Each structure stands twice: as structure tokens, then as C-alpha cells.
Amino acid sequence: MKVKEGIQLFRIDPDEDFHLRDHDPGWAGTKEMRELGEDELKDRAKQILQNRLAELADAQEVLYANDIYSVLLIFQAMDAAGKDGTIKHVMSGVNPQGCQVFSFKKPSDEELDHDFLWRYQRNLPERGRIGIFNRSYYEDVLVVKVHPELLERQKLPAGEKGDRFWKHRYQSINDFERHLARNGTLILKFFLNVSKDEQKKRFLERLTNPEKHWKFSEADVAEREHWDDYQSAFEDAIRETTTGSVPWYVIPADHKWVTRTLVAIIIAEKVRELGLAHPVLTEEQSARLADARKRLEGE
Q1: How far is CA 97 from the centre of its chain?
Q2: Closest by CA position to 1, among listed 39, 31, 23, 22
Q3: Residue of 183, 187, 158 lying closest to 173 (CA atoms)
Q4: For 64-93, what is each residue's pLDDT tens digit?
């Protein structure tokens, strides 16, 4: 299967009648790929991941040298879907100087005194850099939609907070992302699609393994009780905010090796499609370099 064809399996198109039930969280390759056997398939995926990490490291260097484009990676998911691990593995070969990660928690009083996009705008990657949002402004159409009482803290003008309100929020997000894309930000949005059974398994592992106790939060179990509401909120958000220029990628997350390999492939491929190359020096710049070399060699 060719790379572009593979990416299309997980890319959500604007005209698609999107439903999460049509996307298998346990996907582990096409029929032809599965015929290789799980062990061989994992080994191949590991090699592909390493190759893509090397490509991404090279691409980041060129991205930084050009200083024209920036890259924004957005990761959204249910708890225990593997956002942290995916970010850690996929970005392991990237130069830390050209990459920044932000994990957004409960908004502060200062942030609540601004519109819902403000705190995210402040942390956008500058040109030449890769920015990673571990959760993002989409929380304001996900967790806030599931728990509408949180809207009371946002100091919004009086009015109904029904379907029209959420429609306007989706429009604000689309306008924001189109503005960023027009001005040189490549936005890649990943929803890590974990199943309810796999989430339960990972929660139990956190409770059983002392080395993973720190990962567990009682709030995770409380939020799990709203599983169906969250699935509906994710469906609405993805359906309403996948656009031709900034689509969503729904990544199967029940197998971590699948998740990490697919994310690495998509990032490396999309950065490559920017068509960047190392900057070409002007005649004046070349002359200055030649002079500097001459002076150094003459010492």
C-alpha cells in the first residue's frame, strides 16, 4: 500500500458522513499486511517508525533554516489513549530547540477573562518551529460541551447555549485555523481513537502497576461514566471542523505501535509536501562566507 493511499484511510474529508463507529480503534493493518503475522508486522512497523523519525529530524532542520512555515500538531483523545507516549516516541529524534510542547489544563482566572482561543494563541509555534498541543482549544467544544456548567466560568454574554452556540464555536475554530494556514502554519490534527475496553484495560494497569500509579486520577474514572457523551462530542467536533485545508486524522489507538507509526508517517509526509529545501545564498552572502573562510584559513 502506497503512503498517500494509507494516509487517506485515516483522513476525514469535509463531505464525509463521519461516524466513529466506522473507524476501528483496533485496526492493525490491511488484510494483506496482517497475513505477514503480528510479529513480522510489528517489526516492519518499528523499522518504518525509525525511518520516519529520521526523515522528520531532517525536515525539522530545513523547516528551521527556512523560517517561513511553522507546524502545529494537535492531539485529542479520551483518557489513556496514548497521547503522551505518542508525542514522546514520535518527537524523540527532533531537536528540542525547534520544538515546543504545551499541555493545557484547567484555565486560569486570567485566561477566563479572555475568549476561549486566547490562551492557545499565546502558545502558537513561531516560524521554523514545531508546536505540539497536548489537548487544545477543542476542549472548549468537548469537555465544556459534555459539562456545560463550565460555561458559567467563561463570563459569556447572556443567551441560549444550544445548538447555535456550539455551531458558532465550530465556526470560530475553522476561521482561526484557516487564518493560521493562510499565514504559513501547517496544522495536523490527530484524534487517537481508543476503545472503551482498551481504556479500561489501561486504567486497571495503572492501578495494578506501582510504577504507573502516578498516571491514575480518580477524575479519569468519573469522566469514563460520560463515555457516550464524549463520543458524541468528538463526532460533532470532527465532523464540523474537518476542512479541505485542515482535516482531521482519526488514528486507531488500541495498539500503541500502530498509533505511533501512523502519526509519524503522516507528520513526515505532510512536512515533506511543503517542498522545503535549504536556503540558497545570494551572491553577496556567498562572497561573505568566502571571505570569512579565507580569514580563518589565514590565521
Answers
A1: 19
A2: 31
A3: 187
A4: 999 999 999 999 999 999 999 999 998 887
Instruction: Report the percent of the chain where pLDDT is more than 90.
Output: 68
Q: What is the pLDDT of residue 188?
A: 98
Cβ atoms of 198 and 84 within 8 Å: the answer is no
Residue-level pLDDT at 251: 97
Nearest 5 degrees, angle CA 145-CA 147-CA 149? 110
> And the C-alpha cell for 172?
470560530
E strand or H helix that includes residue 241: helix 227-241
Give the pLDDT score at 298.
86
- Measured CA angle at 104 (ends 102, 107), to 5 deg: 140
Distance CA 130, CA 98 (A): 6
Q: How far is CA 172 from the centre of its chain?
A: 19
Q: In this model, does residue 1 exceed pLDDT 60?
A: no
CA 104 – CA 102 distance, rounded (Å)? 6
The pair phi, psi for residue 235, each rounded to 5°, is -60, -50
Amino acid at 6: G
